[in-house]
Design goal:
- The complex is a heterodimer.
- Chain A has strands at residues 5-7, 10-13, 19-24, 31-37, 43-50, 53-57, 65-68, 75-79, 88-95, 107-108, 112-116.
- Chain A is mainly beta.
- Chain A is globular and about 40 Å long.
- Chain B is mainly beta.
- The N and C termini of chain B lie far apart (41 Å).
- Helix content of chain B is 0%, strand content 52%.
- Chain A binds chain B through residues 4, 6, 31, 33, 35, 41-45, 48, 50, 55-56, 58, 91, 93, 98-100, 102, 105-111, and chain B through 32, 34, 36, 41-46, 49, 51-52, 90, 94, 96, 98-109.
Chain lengths: 117, 116
């Protein structure tokens, strides 16, 4: 069964450093998403991406965040200068069509746990 | 604004008994409702969804959910719980009014614990 894969599973970084979280969405999917889950809190939407551009983003997704699909298979989330409060589980997801389609749901990866020290 | 509430942080059920995990929602248009499950050290797995049609939706692993428009609820149910059902369950909603809206909003999660 096709699945979304994320690497690394756990990353530790020093405050102020840049990190790149990587995701390989399901191959025939066209819509891509990043969500995050701070420990003990709810899963929060960060950004959606379609046709090589951001289609929607939350207030959390400020200028320190960026997303890219560099090579047609990977989908990355970059955090330029990490802060302690960026520590969270980051989930990548993809969907075949826009989530308003009745036959579509989002498939999530296993997550990358980012720890900023 | 759309929102989802899961009023119970934890639900404890004995194996073999029926289980219910509660969810209520608030959206302006017709809701698209989802349940996801998260096992330890795993990602979010899709269980089931309601878009339109029959109010009782059947999903993976024997789970079902009932859409109740008057009560704005979408409770997750299973007639007979298994120890392997122990996990974190998330209800989610998308506002069906906006065809371009691409995000779903998650509830805070309910930890389901099934004792042998």
């Amino acid at each position: 069964e096709p699945e979304v894969t994320q690497t690394p599973s756990h990353q530790v970084t020093q405050m102020g450093q840049e990190v790149i979280l990587r995701c390989v969405p399901i191959s025939n999917h066209l819509y891509f998403y990043w969500y995050r889950q701070i420990l003990g809190q709810k899963v929060e939407f960060l950004v959606s991406f379609y046709n090589n551009e951001i289609s929607e983003k939350s207030e959390i997704f400020d200028d320190q965040f960026s997303v890219e699909r560099p090579d047609g298979s990977n989908f990355t989330l970059k955090i330029r200068s990490t802060k302690l409060e960026d520590s969270a589980m980051y989930f990548c997801a993809s969907s075949e069509a826009i989530l308003s389609s009745s036959n579509t749901e989002a498939f999530f990866g296993q997550g990358t746990r980012l720890t900023v020290v | 604004a759309q929102s989802v509430a899961q009023p119970e942080d934890q639900v404890n059920v004995a194996e073999g008994n029926p289980l219910t995990v509660k969810c209520t929602y608030s959206v302006s248009g017709n809701p698209y409702l989802f349940w996801y499950v998260q096992y330890p050290n795993r990602g979010l797995q899709f269980l089931l969804k309601y878009i339109t049609g029959d109010n009782l939706v059947k999903g993976s692993y024997g789970f079902e959910a009932e859409f109740n428009k008057s009560q704005t609820s979408f409770h997750l149910k299973k007639p007979s719980a298994l120890v392997s059902d122990s996990a974190l369950y998330f209800c989610a909603v998308r506002d069906g009014r906006y065809s371009s809206a691409s995000k779903i909003i998650f509830g805070s999660g309910t930890r389901l614990s099934i004792r042998p």
